[in-house]
Amino acid sequence: MHYTYPSPLTTPLDRILPPEPLLLMGAGPVPIPHAVAKANGVVINHLGDTMNEVIAGVKNMARYAFQTSCDKVMGVAGPASAGMEMSVTNLLWPGRSALILVNGTFSERMGAMATAVGADVDYMKFDEPSMVDLAQVQAQLALKQYDVVTLVQGETSCGIYNPNLPEVVKACKDAGALVIVDAVVTLSTMPLLMDEWGIDVCITGGQKGISSIPGVSLIAFSDAAWKVVEARTAIMPHWCLDARKAFNFWGLQQYHYTAPVPGILALYEALRLICEETLQKRFSRHLHSSEALQSGVEAMGLKLFVPKQYRLNSVVAINIPDGIESYQTRKFMTNKFNVEISDAFGLPIFRIGQMGEQCRSANLFKTLYAFGMSLRTQGVDLDVASGMAALEIGLAGDLTDYVP
Predict the structure, then answer these.
(1) Which range among 218-222, 225-229, 259-263 shows the weakest confidence by mean pLDDT?
(2) Fewest Cβ atoms nearer than 10 Å: which of 59, 185, 209, 251?
């Protein structure tokens, strides 16, 4: 038989990957614990008693992470954006309206998804860097009735945190809207109380604060949101992201599609480690680590992008010094020090992650030194020694001072 297209020349993966794994200190994915990596190498049947026990455990532990008692907690076979899309497309369709609160790339993405399913969409944009303004939101809610309001707790793209999230959610609920919250970089890194704050749909990705693998996410629906999902008569544009179909697997142990088994097992182990550490200790570790890093960055002579009152501690945004090229700095860090950080979506900032396994002292020392020395090679006058000393002092502080 003649084959028109011959077999291509191939390269083994170990020749493509660096000889030593990069230390991932960007905005995600993040390093994963050994238990998570081990679980990710296991394949079992996606249906049956064993998987049912795993799913029950994932849901129970996820409820703890979300701080909710709701039954409609599900995994999503896809990145956090797939979870975002599930939340938006199940609650919105032609004839329904949404207010999209925007202070960065990912908060705006929810608006694009809402538009794509035919909803009536209004955007309220806040300058970067700035948090959502409660008074402006209340004024808009007084002008128009919305079915859904979307916003982020923390904006990955620019390092902004919305500390007034509980008040914004309350204002939206008082106005009769359901509220979708993106907690992709904040779940398990800082307090989030889904039930107490009245959040209707909350999403997160596996590859950030949870310290699991990319490609498997979590979503939780309140009872009020689920009533809308169940009552929907409009055609659902997605099969995989149809929440009612997904609940056949996640709630009724029935077939939906072949689940990403290794990813679910990895998620189970990641959530188990969160439960063992406890949320309070985990929040303290993240805040302590991030504030120590921020002290080191500033002592070195660099400026942080976001004012402290609404600075996102899980993704720290740092101004790029004048005349410096982000790509060259990050390339030097990778090649010389084997450390990787992130650039941004058109903003003049570097981003260093402080999520999950990134928040370990050895990782911080290596990252800050690599960052400072890489900038010095481009001619930036930095006091790297002072930065390292400030980091050491910050890390030596008593964690009990950081309990939120």
Answers:
(1) 259-263
(2) 251
The neighbour count for residue 121, using CB atoms within 10 Å, is 22
Query: pLDDT class for 404, splitting at 50, 70, 90?
Result: very low
What radius of gyration do the chain's Cα atoms show?
A: 22
Q: Are 274 and 65 in contact (CB under 8 A)?
A: yes
Angle at 127 between CA 126 and CA 130, to 5 degrees: 80
How far apart are the C-alpha atoms of 296 and 364, rounded to whole Å? Answer: 10
User: What CA–CA distance (Å, rounded) separates 201 from 151?
Assistant: 11
SS3 state at 302: coil
User: Which class in CATH covers the domain with range 23-28+278-402?
Assistant: alpha beta
% pLDDT > 70, the chain: 98
Q: Report yes or no: 206 and 357 within 8 Å, Cβ to Cβ.
A: no
Peptide bond just before 404 cis, omega within 30 deg = no
Alpha-carbon dihedral of residues 250, 222, 130, 380, nearest 10 degrees?
Answer: -20
Report whether the peptide linkage leading into residue 348 is cis, meaning its omega lies within 30 degrees of zero: no
C-alpha 306/C-alpha 374 separation (Å) is: 23
Round to whole Å and give the CA distance between 177 and 210: 29
How far apart CA 270 and CA 355 sit, in angstroms, is: 13
Q: 279 and 64 in contact (C-beta within 8 Å)?
A: yes
Alpha helices in 44-188 (DSSP H): 49-66, 80-91, 105-116, 134-143, 165-174
Give alpha helix (H) positions in 209-278: 223-231, 243-250, 261-277
Q: How far apart are CA 86 and CA 96, in angstroms?
A: 16
Unique residue bearing structure tokens 């949404």: 98
Q: In one letter, which amino acid is 237?
A: P
Per-residue pLDDT of 112-128, as tens digits, reads: 999 999 999 999 999 87
Task: Find residue 304's DSSP bridge partners.
Answer: 318
pTM: 0.94
Check whether domain 34-276 has CATH 3.10.20.600, yes or no: no
| pLDDT tens digits, 272-307 | 999 999 999 999 999 999 999 999 999 999 999 999
Give domain limits for the chain: 23-28+278-402, 34-276
